[in-house]
Design goal:
The complex is a heterodimer of chains A (about 300) and B (about 240). Chain A has four helices and 20 strands. By secondary structure, chain A is of the alpha+beta class. Chain A folds into two domains: about 35 residues; about 270 residues, no CATH class. In chain A, strands 1, 3, 10, 11, 18 and 20 form a six-stranded mixed β-sheet that branches. A six-stranded mixed β-sheet of chain A has the order 2-9-19-12-13-17. In chain A, strands 4-7-8-15 form a four-stranded antiparallel β-sheet, with no helix packed on it. Chain A is globular, with a radius of gyration of 24 Å. Chain B is elongated, with a radius of gyration of 39 Å. The two termini of chain B are about 75 Å apart. Classes of the chains: A alpha+beta (about 300), B alpha+beta (about 240). At the A-B interface, helix 1, strand 1 and strand 2 of A face helix 1, strand 5, strand 6 and helix 3 of B.
Chain lengths: ~300, ~240
């Protein structure tokens, strides 16, 4: 009789131990799952346009988790944990945007600040300096595409990083609905549509940076018409000053789309044909923007890309 | 009277403990089950806790609804209640609304949805890939509130982990006490057996007839070691071979 009681007590002890262990594990698991608030990308489509990361599963909304996890096999989607300033003049090669990562140094003779730059190429995964990914658009008829009025780049801390942000759209090509593998293989983009959001907002540090390093006088709401995008590798030995416009290394960039902090309407993007259109999207912090300075760093940023066919 | 009270308390204690274990098991299974974008999937069934009144009176705030995962293989009908992803205020959320219209643009299917309690349709169409699951009609009032709280950090700790820990400690204590009592009993029994064997009288063998078989060869070893055991009586007789 006593032995029977002992066995029952042991079974009960075992059951409560298992229940406690699994419940504790579930509690720890739930609480250790951290959502990455630093860098966020949302892509949405309205009015009958559908979007996809793999040209097969069609949705109306994609998040950064989809970009990282739901893309097609063999993709080169790069979503780093943080952004590092890079620059581009908008040159496209093999369906990809040529990007350059700069470094600030000092002229050994004069001590003045100089710029050097090396090419930075995207790789699939979480390393890298900028965001780049393929998205597929599905529509039933030829469609003029717009960015919605509330599309843009935001930051909760408003340190100015959102003012130096840029996005680019490379239309790689179009195939019929259902031709998934053909859509994936498209790499026919030859030009980039560059979008500069928040072009009429500058922090105090940004204003000072414009004056001190670029010789440009602006105020908090000035619109800077263009900037010198890096278009080639800049060796250190070239001693290129920060405000250089040497066409060997730079090209004047006037963004195709410019929106302020409070857009009053939609922005015209491009026309897509019926079927599946592959678009490569880039998002980065433009190193040659006057708002790209040290005080702007260390904050979160959200890129809201919203497509519509309604003007 | 006291024994009765003790029994009642014991039963109540067991009922409470098993209730906590069952609830803990359910919440743990939901927490640990397959998750896509934070959505728990328990063998194809997805529970949702309703946070807003957009579907009242069909589904009320605080209800727990059970939905079946949607695999995208079929076109849904108007009137079906679906749960789907949407982005609002830069955040990904799950909405549960009714299909108002099914659109088919040259084979491209999308759904216009509307909450039963809303005046207008939702601003964005729902694509098949956005649909998480389909409502199968199963709902439990208020349970949604309870589950939401139990799944929160504090709720889970206070109402699941802590009671389980208390029960575990209690069961451990009970088990240890039982082991000690069992060992005590065994020791007592051994002592009783020892006492009994020391005090038992030696049984008499005089006058007991021994029947000899017709032929009984008895072989005596050259040397014989006899081991006397406590409490045992052993009579050794040397016999020569007898032929009767």
């Amino acid at each position: 009789m006593k032995k029977k009681k002992l066995y029952s007590a042991f079974i009960m002890l075992l059951i409560t131990a298992i229940a406690l262990t699994t419940a504790s594990y579930a509690w720890f698991t739930q609480n250790s799952t951290v959502s990455m608030a630093g860098l966020n990308v949302n892509v949405t489509a309205a009015d009958g346009i559908q979007i996809s990361m793999d040209a097969a599963t069609w949705k109306a909304a994609l998040t950064v988790e989809d970009i990282k996890g739901a893309a097609y096999t063999g993709h080169v989607n790069q979503v780093p944990d943080s952004l590092v300033p890079v620059s581009t003049a908008g040159t496209v090669a093999n369906g990809k945007l040529l990007m350059y990562k700069g470094s600030i140094g000092a002229n050994p003779t004069t001590g003045a600040q100089i710029l050097s730059a090396e090419a930075t190429v995207e790789q699939a995964g979480a390393t890298g300096d900028f965001i780049a990914f393929d998205v597929f658009l599905l529509t039933s008829a030829q469609t003029q595409l717009y960015l919605t009025q509330d599309a843009g780049v935001t930051s909760s801390a408003s340190k100015g990083l959102e003012n130096a942000a840029r996005l680019a759209f490379l239309v790689e090509g179009n195939v019929a609905n259902g031709a998934t593998s053909d859509a994936i293989a498209l790499t026919g983009a030859t030009s980039a549509i560059i979008w500069e959001p928040n072009n009429n907002a500058h922090t105090t540090s940004g204003i000072a940076n414009a004056a001190n390093n670029y010789g440009i006088s602006i105020d908090a709401t000035s619109v800077v018409a263009n900037y010198q995008g890096v278009n080639a590798i800049i060796p250190v030995a070239a001693n290129v000053p920060l405000n250089s416009s040497d066409t060997t290394y730079f090209q004047t960039v006037t963004p195709t789309i410019k929106t302020g902090t409070a857009p009053t309407g939609t922005s015209t993007l491009f026309t897509i044909n019926a079927g599946i259109t592959k678009v490569r999207i880039y998002a980065w912090v433009e190193g040659q923007d006057v708002d790209c300075e040290n005080d702007a760093s260390g904050t979160d940023v959200t890129f809201n890309i919203k497509f519509t066919k309604v003007a | 009277m006291k024994n009765k009270m003790k029994k009642v308390l014991d039963v109540l204690g067991n009922v409470l403990m098993w209730s906590v274990i069952i609830v803990a098991a359910c919440v743990t299974v939901v927490s640990l089950s397959t998750k896509e974008k934070g959505i728990a999937n328990v063998m194809g069934y997805i529970p949702f806790s309703i946070q807003t009144a957009s579907m009242e009176p069909t589904i009320n705030t605080g209800d727990l609804i059970i939905t079946k995962k949607y695999d995208g293989s079929t076109v849904l009908e108007k009137g079906t209640i679906i749960s789907f992803f949407a982005i609002e205020q830069e955040k990904l959320i799950v909405k549960t609304h009714r299909i108002d219209t099914v659109l088919n643009r040259n084979g491209i299917i999308s759904y216009v949805t509307k909450g039963d309690n809303n005046n207008s349709i939702d601003p964005t169409e729902v694509a098949p890939g956005d649909i998480v699951s389909v409502y199968d009609g199963t709902r439990c009032a208020i349970v949604g509130y309870v589950l939401t709280f139990l799944k929160s950090q504090i709720g889970f700790l206070i109402f699941v982990i802590l009671p389980l820990f208390i029960f575990f400690v209690y069961q451990l204590y009970t088990f240890i006490v039982l082991i000690i009592e069992t060992k005590k009993e065994e020791a007592m029994q051994e002592l009783e057996t020892l006492k009994a064997s020391v005090q038992a009288p030696v049984p008499a063998t005089v006058g007991v007839p021994v029947q000899m078989p017709a032929q009984m060869p008895v072989q005596m070893p050259a040397e014989q070691n006899v081991q006397m055991q406590t409490g045992e009586q052993m009579q050794v007789q040397e016999q020569t071979q007898i032929n009767q």
